[in-house]
Amino acid sequence: MLLLAAISAGLSACASSPASKIVVPENLQVPAAQQFLAETNASGVQIYTCSTSKTDVNKYEWSFKAPEAELFNANGKKIGKHYAGPSWESEDGSKVVAEVKARNDGPVASAIPWLLLSAKSTSGNGVFSKVSYIQRLATEAGKAPVDGCSKANFGSELRVPYTALYRYFTAA
């Protein structure tokens, strides 16, 4: 009975957290055979490089290079990092490399898109070694500016701060 009360209290705490109130768009839903594994808050930067435009070689634009962020649990304790790949690596040594399956602009126009990603590979023995899907939600900022990239600063990098919520899922 004590265990049931503890589980109930834990679920109530999760249900009242702001993260649980996020409405996940239909195209970012994980398959039915998945179950929730963990959730982290990310704080870091999206790195862009000034390069020639994909549509006009006489113009320049900021192109996405990689993310660089620290991952925190609900208590604010650093538990890992997120970087190029895209990769998520836990301090327990486990790692997941994923690929984008779906995007959604999300509710904030100035923020990077929300994503659904699926694992391409996992390694180690820990929480991220069990991940099969990841959702990037509740993004704030992180978009490249529309200007400021020119022939004069071709090849330069720009680091744009962002935050996001990552939810991890595993096969049931």
TrEMBL record:
<protein>
    <submittedName>
        <fullName>DUF3455 domain-containing protein</fullName>
    </submittedName>
</protein>
<dbReference type="InterPro" id="IPR021851">
    <property type="entry name" value="DUF3455"/>
</dbReference>
<dbReference type="Pfam" id="PF11937">
    <property type="entry name" value="DUF3455"/>
</dbReference>
